[in-house]
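Ticket #4471: structure output looks truncated?

Reporter: J.K.
Steps to reproduce: submitted the chain below (160 residues) through the standard prediction queue, then opened the result file.
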Amino acid sequence: MTPGTARTARGAWRRAAGVLVVVLAADQVVKALVTASLERGEERAVVAGIKLVNTRNSGIAFGQLQGGGAIVAVVIAIAVCALLVYFAHHARQRLMWLPTGLLLGGALGNIADRIREGAVVDFLKVPYWPAFNVADAAITCGVVILLVVMDRGDRASRSA
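Returned output as attached by the reporter:
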């Protein structure tokens, strides 16, 4: 690895860490505001079918594996480790830091809830969709962006 590529990789790790911190902070602040203003189980209409709610999710994204306990912890640990390994090998790829930061920030936001509450705090309910939170939105966006970045990297390597 040349000094320039090492510097690029370090910059990618710093940018990913910056995104992680912003997502984690936003997630935890909004969850604290919601839990302070709504009783658990309470719903408040916001606009056009969108509601603020104070609910808990013991599963993974959008209520899957409810009550999974140890299985959920193992799935999350494997996913985070796999992401870190992938990023370590592809940190220099253009924009790879963005989905990595989104995914790690979202994962840590929900892990913090699991440690503190025993389940994830969800607060936004839209029609025909399970309640979710900032961390879930960051994870979803992170997956989509990761797929796009990976596809662009594959296309670039094939054309090179």
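Triage note (M.O.): checked the attachment and the full token line is present. The chain has a mean pLDDT of 88.
Status: closed, working as intended.
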